[in-house]
Amino acid sequence: MSKTNQSFWDERYGQEQYAYGEAPNEYLKNKLTGFPKGRILFPLEGEGRNAVFAAILGWNVFAFDQSSEGKKKAELLAKKNGVQIEYVVSDVADFSCTEKSFDALVLVYAHFTLNERRRYHQKLSSLLKKRGLLIIEGFGKEHIEKQKQNPNAGGPKEATMLYDLEDLKTDFRGFEFIEIYKTDTELQEGNYHVGVASVVRVLAIKK
Questions:
Q1: ∠ CA(193), CA(1), CA(62), 5° rounding?
Q2: Which CATH number goes with the domain that contains 92?
Q3: Mean pLDDT for the chain overall
Q4: Is the backbone of residue 19 left (phi > 0), alpha (psi -120 to 50) or beta?
Q5: What is the span of the domain harbouring residue 40?
Q6: pTM across the whole model
Q7: Percent of the chain with pLDDT strictly greater than 70
Q8: How many angstroms separate the first and last alpha carbons of the chain?
C-alpha cells in the first residue's frame, strides 16, 4: 500500500463534507437498478456513496479502499441510510478474496498506474462469477484537455492513468460488452468532480 496515496486520500476524506457527495454516480444509478440483486464488490470505494446506494437497492455489498478515513465516512453514510455494508481497508494488491465469489463488480473512478492497471483489472475480474456484471465509469484520455479548461472537473493528472476503450477491451477479455463508449458529461459530484468531463462507460457481462 502506497503511504503517499494513503495519506492523500485520508486527508481528502478526513473532512466533514463528503468529497464526492453522498449521491451515487449517475451511470451506476441508471444501470445497476435493472439487474437481479446479489453480492457486489466496490474496489477503491472511498466514502461509500455508490456502495450505500447498492445496499439501499438490496444488494449484499462488499467494499474496500486504502483510506481508513474513507471507511469511517462510508460506515457513517450507511448508518444514515439504514443499511449495512462490509468494508475493509486495503489496496488491490493486498486484497484477498475467493475467486468467482461476486455477482457484480463496480469501478467508478478507480484509476491505476500504467504498470498496475491490467494486472489489477484481471485480478478483480477473476472475483466475478460467470455471467457476473461489470460496470465502469472513469476518466478517458481526452479528459486531459477538460482538466486544462476546468481543473475542478477532477481526475488523475497523469495521462497514462486515464482510460482508453481498446485497453479496457483487452484488460477485460472474456467479457461480453453490452456497451462501451466515451462521452462528455456534466459532473456534479461533491467538491472535486464539478463541470464537464470526458468519461468512458462500460456495461459488460463475464462469459
A1: 65
A2: 3.40.50.150
A3: 95
A4: alpha
A5: 3-206
A6: 0.96
A7: 98
A8: 31
How many structural domains compose the chain? 1
Pairing assessment for the beta strands 86-89 and 60-65 based on DSSP bridges: parallel
CA geometry: angle at 45 spanning 152 and 113, to 5°?
Answer: 70
What is the rounded distance in angstroms from the CA atom of residue 18 to the CA atom of residue 123? 29
Nearest-CA neighbor of 68 among 51, 91, 50? 91
When pLDDT is cut at 50, 70 and 90, the band that residue 3 belongs to is low
Residue 38 identity (one-letter amino acid):
G
Cell of 124: 478483480
176-202 pLDDT per residue, tens: 999 999 999 999 999 999 999 999 999
How far apart, in whole angstroms, are the C-alpha atoms of residue 94 and residue 38?
Answer: 24
160: number of Cβ within 10 Å: 13
SS3 readout for the chain? CCHHHHHHHHHHHCCCCCCCCCCCCHHHHHHHCCCCCCEEEEECCCCCHHHHHHHHHCCEEEEEECCHHHHHHHHHHHHHCCCCCEEEECCCCCCCCCCCCEEEEEEECCCCCHHHHHHHHHHHHCCEEEEEEEEEEEEECCHHHHHHHCHHHCCCCCHHHCECHHHHHHHCCCEEEEEEEEEEEEEEECCCEEEEEEEEEEEEEEC
Q: Which residue has the cell 496515496?
A: 5
